[in-house]
Amino acid sequence: MNRAGEKQMPYYRVVGDVPRKRHVQFRRPDGGLYAEELMGEEGFSSDSSLLYHRHLPTAIIKAEPVEPFAGSVLTPNLPLSPRHFRTQDLPSGGDLVTGRGLLAGNADVRMSYVATEAPSELYRNSMGDECVYIASGRVVFESTYGAMEAAEGDYVVVPTGTIHRWVPDGRVTAFVIEAAGHIRPPKRYLSKYGQFLEHAPYCERDLRSPQETLVVEGEEVPVLVRTRGGLTRLVYRNHPFDVVGWDGCLYPYAFNINDFEPIVKGIHAPPPVHQTFEGPNFVICSFCPRPLDFHPEAVPIPYNHHNVDSDELMFYAGGDYSARKGSGIDVGSISLHPAGFTHGPQPGAVEAVIEAVRQGHTRTNELAVMVDTFRPLDLGPAALSVEDPAYAWTWAR
Question: Do the annotations mark residue 321 as ligand-binding?
Fold first, then answer.
């Protein structure tokens, strides 16, 4: 048997008990066979993992339709306008699945905000990967792969089809990114064999994943399943958390934003240096505290810019945003700057930062998660309910 903790190739992991060869007889102590489940992406032509269940993972005894979650309708961003939404004003409720308030989305990605103390039911998103950024609080993520803790600043990446649930330890707030495909590290950070390269702003040592299996007893266990056709609640004959071992390159993992190593230049660098993950027609970026631009004549603040192919949605997670002073942006804010609109520092911010550098200020103190999409973003009802209607005109003050 292989055990967790052995040295493996990049990305490959083994947890619990697995047989020496794949797809051979692997028997329980009572002589019966464990049931294999191969979880594979892209028609089994990409990453996969092999899980060994005590019971049949196919054994369901009931299927029920579920009404769509309230507040799931999107509205076009018309008239075209930059937007500011205050997630601090959204109510708590539901859980980390059912309590998501839809902020914005398109055919490739949907973004939500949730504040809750309640544990979720078992859930499987069969439409795409999820990336859940824990903005505050602590939570245990339980899945067929095992359990792991996550806390403020953690991105938790959940592969498509993973049965899981969230168990908060007190109040938790989260920014949720749901993809219509897979979320991965940018290709330019990886070797052709999948290892993080030396220039990458994070590496394998920064990633955390379940360290041991999670076995839960239970019968007639409901699992909420999201598919392209809608929501269904399947009832499993036995609890899906019955895996005694798994191995492969496909599994949930956590990465803390504070482990991102910012790439800095003498003059201001554009957003691609902050890229953390990529998904279908979108990217996720991390803006972290870092040294200010150090050229003697640098303008150490973003220049006015127009990302002609992307909408930019930014969740302000912490710190101080000197470039946005006077705009109303604060921790917990979300800004949306659509393609078709040029945006940049607030009036007076450039000279203020240059003067701060003269006075010895050498570092930024910002923390934010940004999603750039290559198709226009429509607006969700949660965002529209907490919009700052004066934001668009703050550059003209």
Answer: yes
Alpha carbon of 102 to those of 26, 132, 228: distances in Å? 44, 14, 17
Q: Largest Cα–Cα distance of the chain, in whole Å?
A: 77
What is residue 366's three-state secondary structure?
A: strand
Which residues, listed in sequence order, are joined to residue 287 by a DSSP beta bridge? 368
Q: What is the pLDDT of residue 5?
A: 41
**Which residues on neighbouring strands pair with residue 238, listed in sequence order?**
219
Q: Where are the beta strands (DSSP E) in 257-364?
A: 275-279, 282-287, 311-320, 333-337
Please report, for residues 151, 154, 390, the alpha-carbon distance to residue 254 in angstroms, rounded to integers and kept in the order given: 10, 6, 37
* Sign of the CA dihedral with 44 first, then 49, 50, and 51 last: negative
Residue 283: beta bridge partners?
278, 372
Q: Counting beta carbons within 10 angstroms of the beta carbon of residue 315, is it exposed (0 to 12), middle (13 to 18) or buried (19 or more)? A: buried
Residue from 181, 179, 152, 180 nearest 168 by CA: 152
Answer yes or no: is 343 a known binding residue. yes
Answer yes or no: are the C-beta atoms of 140 and 169 closer than 8 Å. yes
Helix (H) or strand (E) holding 357: helix 349-358
- Count Cα atoms within 13 angstroms, Cβ side, for 142: 17
| Number of residues that this document lists for the chain | 397
Please compute the mean of the pLDDT values over residues 291-296 and round it to a whole number. 84
Residue 28 is predicted with a pLDDT of: 95
For CA atoms 156, 161, 167, 170, give the dihedral sign.
positive
DSSP annotation of 108 reads S
Render pLDDT for 241-292 as a digit per residue (tens, 0 to 9). Answer: 999 999 999 999 999 999 999 988 888 888 889 999 999 999 999 999 888 8
Q: What's the burial of 119, exposed, middle or buried (CB within 10 Å: 0-12/13-18/19+)?
A: middle
Q: Which residues are identified as catalytic?
A: 268
Per-residue pLDDT tens digits for 93-139: 999 999 999 999 999 999 999 999 999 999 999 999 999 999 999 99
Tell me: is residue 239 an annotated ligand-binding position. no
Confirm whether residue 274 is marked as ligand binding: no
- What is d(CA 82, CA 375) in angstroms, rounded to the nearest whole number? 16
pTM above 0.85, yes or no: yes
Helix (H, G, I), strand (E, B) or coil at 351: helix
